[in-house]
UniProtKB/TrEMBL annotation:
This is Glycerol-3-phosphate dehydrogenase [NAD(P)+]. The keyword Transcription regulation does not apply. Keywords: Cytoplasm, Lipid biosynthesis, Lipid metabolism, NAD, NADP, Nucleotide-binding, Oxidoreductase, Phospholipid biosynthesis, Phospholipid metabolism. GO terms for cellular component: cytosol. It comes from Geotalea uraniireducens (strain Rf4). Residues 7-164 form the Glycerol-3-phosphate dehydrogenase NAD-dependent N-terminal domain. Substrate binds at residues 109, 259-260. NAD(+) binds at residues 11-16, 144, 259. The active site is at 195 (proton acceptor). The gene is gpsA. InterPro entries: 6-PGluconate_DH-like_C_sf (IPR008927), 6PGD_dom2 (IPR013328), G3P_DH_NAD-dep (IPR006168), G3P_DH_NAD-dep_C (IPR006109), G3P_DH_NAD-dep_N (IPR011128), NAD(P)-bd_dom_sf (IPR036291). Pathway: Membrane lipid metabolism; glycerophospholipid metabolism. One of its GO terms (biological process) is glycerol-3-phosphate catabolic process.
């Protein structure tokens, strides 16, 4: 085994719990911070997380806390896995306890609503420069439940520094979880954020009773608009052909485990957004990222027609069937990227 690390995992939702468990079972010394005090009690007593990852037995070595300082102070690697809209407040609370040489890994997928910042931009704003250089983004096609069940999975970790990406790669890789390095942080995190918007569209299409043709069209043209936004923000086109781009897009637009796709299905079936969200304890990041991406596209003058229609369905009461018709009857054009 590689060097044992002292790791703090911040966020005990389905993904944070899964990754903390993976790292503990790999032999690292892991402390998992949960926002909900009752969850810490449950996980400590029963070694399971019935709120976000029911049915999975957690490592006997995993430690749990509700006190942020205990999960952060003295750790060599910190993995932040909270919803992107609370990332800013969580990182600010953690900052006083972060050791100066710690590696910071973010596994959140979204774009902040108020600032339109990507997750790495939030970290860059808050962290001092020496910690910012230690930042990496972990993304790619990875349903928590399948990783928790040790099903072979491949993801990407992106950092501006190759040594940081390689360190994280070695820290997380197991025989069922294969991590590729990447140097395009913006591309990797935008792929993870925008695929959630397109997954809502794919869900809407399924909910309306459309078939595979429609879904394939949404995936392909969704990839085109994700790539256009990425290029406008300095990302590399090739990144969108990778795990964090088309990889996660296909997974989320087709997989029944996707929360974003399931929100879309219910919308397509005619249910109201508020009612759908009211029934969910988990986060469907695409709901807020749709608004962020719509505003970002307007600001950067990037054409994102699918995102625009999802925005109108979610926030402007546009009937889903009308949105699809409007997409299909746009001005005809060449197939561009
Ligand atoms: N679940 C997956 O399969 C998966 C895979 C890859 C990436 N992600 C990403 O990981 C991030 C976390 O999602 P998840 O699926 O682990 O969560 P989840 O939907 O399973 O659970 C919600 C999480 O949000 C936390 N939370 C709610 N309000 C909070 C607050 N005010 N402060 C701090 N935490 C708060 C809850 O404690 C819980 O950890 C998201 O950005 C998601 O897109 C999830
Ligand atoms: O369940 P979703 O839609 O949040 O997707 C989970 C992961 O991001 C898939 O890679």
């Amino acid at each position: 085994m590689e060097m044992q690390e002292n790791i703090g995992v911040i966020g005990a939702g389905s993904w944070g719990t899964t990754l903390a468990d993976l790292l503990a079972k790999k032999g690292h010394n892991v402390t998992l911070w949960a926002y909900e005090p009752e969850l810490v009690e449950e996980m400590t007593q029963t070694r399971s997380n019935s709120l976000f990852l029911p049915g999975i037995s957690l490592s006997p070595e995993l430690k749990f806390t509700n006190v942020l300082q205990e999960a952060v102070a003295g750790k060599t690697v910190l993995l932040f896995v909270v919803p992107s809209q609370v990332t800013r407040s969580v990182i600010k609370s953690a900052l006083p306890f972060i050791s100066g040489s710690a590696l910071i890994v973010s596994a959140s997928k979204g774009i902040e609503l108020d600032t339109l910042k990507t997750v790495s931009q939030i970290y860059e704003e808050i962290l001092p420069q020496e910690l910012s250089a230690n930042f990496s983004a972990l993304s790619g096609p990875s349903f928590a439940r399948e990783v928790a069940q040790e099903m072979p999975t491949a993801v990407a970790v992106a950092s501006g520094r190759q040594d940081v990406a390689k360190h994280v790669q070695h820290t997380f890789t197991t025989r069922f979880f294969r991590v590729y390095t990447n140097d395009d942080v913006t591309g990797v995190e935008l792929g993870g954020a925008i695929k959630n918007v397109i997954a809502i569209a794919a869900g809407i299409s399924d909910g309306l009773g459309f078939g595979h043709n429609t879904r394939a069209a949404l995936i392909t043209r969704g990839l085109a608009e994700m790539t256009r936004l990425g290029r406008a923000m300095g990302a590399q086109t090739a990144t969108f052909a990778g795990l964090a781009g088309i990889g996660d897009l296909v997974l989320t637009c087709t997989g029944d485990l996707s929360r974003n796709r399931s929100v879309g299905i219910k919308l397509g079936e005619g249910r109201r957004l508020a009612e759908i969200l009211g029934e969910m304890r988990m986060v469907a990041e695409g709901v807020k990222t749709t608004e962020s991406a719509y505003n970002l596209a307007s600001r950067l003058k990037v054409e994102m027609p699918i995102t625009e229609k999802v925005y109108q369905v979610l926030y402007k009461d546009k009937p889903a069937r009308e949105a699809v018709l409007e997409l299909m009857t746009r001005d005809l054009k060449a197939e561009d990227f």
